[in-house]
Design brief:
The complex is a heterodimer of chains A (114) and B (117).
Chain A lengths: L3 E4 L2 E4 L4 E8 L5 E7 L6 E7 L2 E5 L6 E7 L2 E7 L7 E8 L9 E2 L3 E5 L1
Chain B lengths: L2 E3 L4 E5 L4 E3 L2 E3 L6 E7 L6 E7 L7 E2 L2 E6 L4 E6 L8 E8 L9 E3 L3 E6 L1
Chain lengths: 114, 117
């Protein structure tokens, strides 16, 4: 199983809503990533989890709250988002290794904030 | 901080032609890793090829090969015998060494490649 599964694939939410994005992998990877990607732009790193602990937060606003409940699951909780937060949110995982190991990406969640 | 630059926002070639995508990067590290990822309209980021900086030999994967020039900090991707299915956004990416216990994967701006029939 070399898949990273993200749900939902599409999400429309109001600015006062609370929603969550989910990412799951069963490859035993201990590094997991959240990226935000606007149209025709590269993915921008948001958070990195290493062994279920938050290692890197790229100064992301607190309306985005990540959570890693176990080694297979990564969530991104959303609250009070703005229309400019509309984007494709990508999850990725890779083995926690200093070697050359690529990141495996999910298909993303297309988020629209109205 | 590491930066990755792709100077070609868009490229277009005919099917079966060879095309080269450019990438340069900036880093003070000596050991690092470079990747080319492909993102078709389906949105899934797919690894095309990878290169370890300590290896002088250029990586090759079937029709895909790289020209890695470490001193020039250049990492170009060559696609031979291009196919319609190669149409996608291509991102050059740099993997940092451990920072705060994790490695960052940093992307260039991307090159939109269109293969025409």
């Amino acid at each position: 199983d070399t898949e990273v599964t993200q749900t939902p694939k599409h999400l429309v939410m109001g600015m006062t809503n609370k929603k969550s994005l989910k990412c799951e992998q069963h490859m035993g990877h201990r590094a997991m990533y959240w990226y935000k990607q606007k149209a025709k732009k590269p993915p921008e790193l948001m958070f990195v989890y290493s062994y279920e602990k938050l290692s890197i937060n790229e100064s992301v606003p607190s309306r985005f709250s990540p959570e890693c409940p176990n080694s297979s699951l990564l969530n991104l909780h959303l609250h009070a988002l703005q229309p400019e937060d509309s984007a494709l949110y990508l999850c990725a995982s890779r083995p926690h290794s200093s070697g050359v190991t690529e990141a495996f990406f999910g298909q993303g969640t297309r988020l629209t904030v109205v | 901080a590491q930066t990755v630059t792709q100077s070609q926002p868009e490229m277009s070639v005919q099917e079966a032609e060879t095309v080269t995508l450019s990438c340069t990067y900036d880093t003070s590290e000596n050991n690092y890793y470079l990747f080319w990822y492909k993102q078709p309209p389906s949105r899934q980021m797919i690894l095309v090829i990878r290169q370890e900086a300590y290896k002088q030999q250029n990586a090759t994967e079937n029709r895909f090969s790289v020209n890695f020039q470490k001193a020039a900090k250049s990492f170009s991707l060559k696609i031979s015998d291009s196919q319609l299915g190669d149409t996608a956004m291509y991102f050059c990416a740099f993997m940092t060494s451990l920072i705060q216990g994790a490695q960052k994967l940093v992307f260039g701006q991307g090159t939109r490649l269109t293969i025409n029939p």
